[in-house]
């Protein structure tokens, strides 16, 4: 893959992640659910932050660059955890092996039989 193709792929990934962040925010707002990780959508400066069991986790980017793939992976894990949490609140069981299936899990959450009840 040449440089131009690689940059185009990064743009596509970042665009998709931005849309997912927006949808999660809307669904959580509609359902009145506080998500475990705070997700801030600021375009190419988007990030996730929060804590687990009182241990703070520093901001992790939710945009991919040539230099931040490890931190981006952690940010995506935080985003996927939020989706899994949304699913859990709606009675949708997500196996551990499928937590990384971002769009599929978001779709399952939105298709829950008792969504919002």
From TrEMBL:
It comes from the Eukaryota. One of its GO terms (cellular component) is lytic vacuole. Coiled coil: none annotated. Keywords: Membrane, Transmembrane, Transmembrane helix. GO terms for molecular function: SNARE binding. The chain crosses the membrane at residues 20-40. One of its GO terms (biological process) is SNARE complex assembly. PANTHER family: AUTOPHAGY-RELATED PROTEIN 14 (PTHR15157:SF13), UV RADIATION RESISTANCE-ASSOCIATED GENE PROTEIN (PTHR15157). This is UV radiation resistance protein/autophagy-related protein 14. It comes from Gigaspora rosea.
């Amino acid at each position: 893959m040449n440089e131009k193709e690689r940059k185009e792929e990064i743009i596509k990934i970042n665009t998709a992640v931005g849309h997912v962040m927006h949808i999660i925010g809307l669904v959580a707002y509609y359902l009145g659910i506080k998500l475990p990780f705070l997700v801030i959508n600021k375009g190419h400066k988007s990030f996730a932050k929060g804590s687990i069991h009182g241990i703070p986790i520093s901001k992790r980017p939710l945009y991919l660059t040539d230099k931040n793939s490890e931190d981006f992976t952690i940010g995506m894990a935080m985003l996927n955890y939020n989706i899994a949490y949304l699913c859990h609140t709606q009675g949708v069981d997500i196996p551990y092996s499928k937590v990384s299936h971002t769009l599929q899990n978001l779709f399952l959450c939105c298709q829950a039989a008792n969504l919002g009840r």
